[in-house]
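Quick one, probably user error.
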């Protein structure tokens, strides 16, 4: 990318409205320029019979994030904050799925194979959709993404630019895969990313912990780590 086509970096608006308790240190943000991004809270990852389980994972490990996500989404809606949902998945003909991604594991358990909730990780199938407890309300954008990061091959960057967003509150699954990838993409694009620890989850508790530790290490190398309660408090008062 040439400098002329590089994105314009967002500067913090002059009067940050709220301070969110976070690690490695509290962060002041203008909540009017902040979006809540819920990553891949899909049936394929959270429910038995989906992609997560076909990979051999214990999907019950992701359940802990559902109620904190629900509470933060409710607070964001009450405040009028932009809430964006993402879904990982592919077109029915797999034309957007790299063979290197598809050709892993047993053929009957791969992306596109039939499963109890339809074809695994395919757009339009029941398993691809967001779990009922966190279902978007009309008007909330849903970003369908073929990759792990929410910016790659999607309209997310344009959507956020159009809305004047500078900061992202990031929730979802899994902490070390799609949450981490999205935060790294967003950080490079100039967004302040605050990851809500209890609103994220992994099939591997040690990867959840490491995924959060990586973000906040070295003075917050990719972003900040907070939780649902400090963020809800900030939304109510900021
Ligand atoms: C994975 C995701 N883990 N949403 N996807 O394959 O993290």
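Nope, works fine. Designed sequence:
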């Amino acid at each position: 990318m040439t400098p002329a086509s590089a994105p314009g970096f967002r500067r913090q608006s002059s009067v940050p409205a709220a301070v969110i308790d976070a690690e490695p240190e509290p962060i002041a943000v203008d909540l009017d320029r902040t979006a809540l991004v819920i990553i891949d809270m899909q049936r394929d990852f959270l429910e038995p019979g989906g992609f997560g389980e076909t990979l051999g994972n214990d999907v019950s490990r992701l359940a802990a994030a559902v109620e904190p996500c629900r509470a933060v989404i409710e607070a964001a809606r009450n405040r009028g904050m932009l809430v964006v949902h993402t879904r990982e998945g592919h077109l029915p003909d797999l034309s957007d799925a790299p063979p290197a991604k598809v050709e892993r594991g047993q053929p009957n358990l791969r992306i596109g194979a039939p499963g109890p909730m339809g074809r695994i990780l395919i757009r339009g199938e029941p398993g691809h959709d967001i779990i009922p407890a966190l279902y978007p309300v009309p008007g909330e954008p849903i970003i369908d993404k073929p990759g792990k990061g929410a910016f790659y091959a999607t309209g997310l960057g344009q959507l956020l630019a159009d809305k004047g967003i500078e900061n992202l509150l990031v929730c979802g699954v899994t902490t070390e895969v799609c949450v981490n990838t999205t935060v790294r993409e967003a950080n490079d694009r100039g967004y302040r990313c605050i990851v809500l620890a209890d609103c994220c989850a992994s099939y591997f508790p040690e990867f959840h912990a490491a995924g959060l530790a990586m973000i906040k290490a070295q003075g917050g190398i990719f972003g900040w780590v907070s939780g649902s309660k400090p963020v809800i408090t900030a939304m109510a008062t900021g």
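The first strand starts at residue 18 and ends at 20.
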